[in-house]
Amino acid sequence: MIRPSLLWAPRAWLPDGWRDHVLLRIGADGHWAEVSAGVHQAPAEATVLQGAVLPGLVNAHSHAFQRAFAGLAERRDTASGEPDNFWSWRDRMYEVARRITPEQLRAIAAHLYVELLRGGYTQVCEFHYLQHAPDGTPHRDPLAMSWALADAAVDAGIGLTLLPVLYERAGFEQPHLRDDQRRFATSAEQVWAMQRRLAASARPLVGAGIAIHSLRAAAPASITQLLELAGGWDGPIHIHAAEQVREVEDCIAATGARPLEWLARERLLDERWQLVHATHATPDEIQAVAQSGAGVVLCPSTEANLGDGVCDLRGWLASGTSLSIGSDSHVTRAWREELRLLEYGQRLVQRERNVAAAPEAGQPSTAERLWSVVLDGGAAAAGLHRSGLQSGARADLLVVDGHDHALLGVPAAQLIDALVFSSPGRPWRDVMVAGRFVVQDHRHEGAARVASTFAEAMQQLWDPSPCRA
Predict the structure, then answer these.
(1) What's the pLDDT tens digit per position in 309-368?
(2) Catalytic residue among 277, 280, 330, 444
(3) What are the DSSP E strand ranges found in 242-377?
(4) Annotated catalytic residue 328
(5) Is the pTM of this model over 0.85?
(6) Which DSSP letter does residue 131 get?
(7) 3.20.20.70, 3.20.20.140, 3.40.50.300, 3.30.40.10: which CATH number matches 57-382?
(8) Pick the catalytic residue: 151, 308, 312, 328?
(9) Per the CB 3.0–4.6 Å rule, which of 113, 149, 269, 415 could disulfide with 292?
C-alpha cells in the first residue's frame, strides 16, 4: 500500500469541526506534521483524497477471541423456566475459550482487525485475559497469547493497546477460579510484569496498559497491589463494572456498595481509569465518576446482544465524563452501528427522538455530538496522548466514499448524520494508519489470506467430526 507524505482533502473533520480544503503533511514518524485548512489548491505533489475525511476511531474494548463465537449463541434449546442471559452465554463462551491455541487466536484476531479497519476503527484496546494453555499451565513464553494478538495487529495494519488482565477468582464469595476459567489466572505481579515486557518490546503501533477483570474477579488487596506497582505510571487502567444487575447485587452483598460506588468510595479512580459498560449507574455514581476524571467505555451492540440493559446516556453526557465505544464480543464491527444502537436504545426507553442532541449547547446533531465525544474519549482509553487530524497525532484517517448508495445526494453538512443513521453500506473508501494506507479503494491487500486462515481456524474450532483433533 502507498505511503504518501502529503495529502489534500476537499473536506475534513478537524478538532473544531468540518473544514474545507485541508492540507495534511505526514512526518517521517507516521504522525501529522502539519494540518492546514483553507488551502484552496492542492499542491502538485499532494495525493488528492477522493472524498470527505474523518479521523480514525479507537475501539476501546475488544475480546478478539470472541469473534469466533459471534452469531453462534443465538439459539435457546431448552424450554425450561430458566432465562437465557449473560451468565448462560458466558458459560457457552468459555467452551470456546478453553480450546483456542495461539495460532488460532492470531488467525481470529487478524480477521477481526481487518474487519475493524473496514468498520472505521484504526486502533483497538484488547482486554486480554486468555493467557495460558488449555489446561491452565503457562506457555513456555507466558506472553505467547499476547504476541499472537500483536502479530495479528501487524497482519491487519491496525494500532493495538494490549491490556493484560488481573483475574484471580470466580466471584465475590468464590476465592478460586472455576475449572473453565483456569486459562485466565493472573496475579498483580504477573499483570504488571506483562505490561512492562509488552511496553519494552517497542513494537510499532503496539502499546500496553493494564486491566482488572471486575470487582467480582479480583480481590481488593490484589487491586491495591497492582495500583501500587503502577504508582507514578500514567497509562490506561480498564475494568468491567456494573454491566449486569446481578453483578451489582452481588457487589452490594459482599461490600455494602455498588461497583462504581465502591471504586469511588475507595478513592481508586483517576483519569487513567476506564470503566467498561457502567450500564447500571445511579446519578450519584455518575457524578462521582465525572469528578474523578475516569472515563466510561460503552459497548452498545454487546450490551444489547447480552441483554445487559440500557445506560443513562443523558446522565453521562451531562456530567462531562469522557466516553468511548467498544465492540466487545464483536457481534458488530463498525462504529457507525455502535453509535446508531446507542441512540436507538435511548429512543426506545425514553420514547423520544434525538436524545443525545444538545441544541442548547450548539450541538443539534445527535450523530455529530456522539461522534465528537467518543473520538476524544477513545484516545484516553487507548493511552494516546493526541488524536484526530491535528499536528502531533498519529496520521490515521478515513476517506468517505461519497458514491456509497447510502450516502448518495446527502448534503455535506449532514454527512455524519447519514453515516450513522442511514444504513447499510460500506462508506470507507480508504483507511490510513500511521501514514500508510491499509485499505485503498475498499481493498485490503492481506484480506484474502487473512480470511482463509480465519476460516481454517473456525473449522478447527467448530467441525464436529470425531476425526479432527
Answers:
(1) 999 999 999 999 999 999 999 999 999 999 999 999 999 999 999 999 999 999 999 999
(2) 277
(3) 273-277, 295-298, 322-325
(4) yes
(5) yes
(6) -
(7) 3.20.20.140
(8) 328
(9) 269
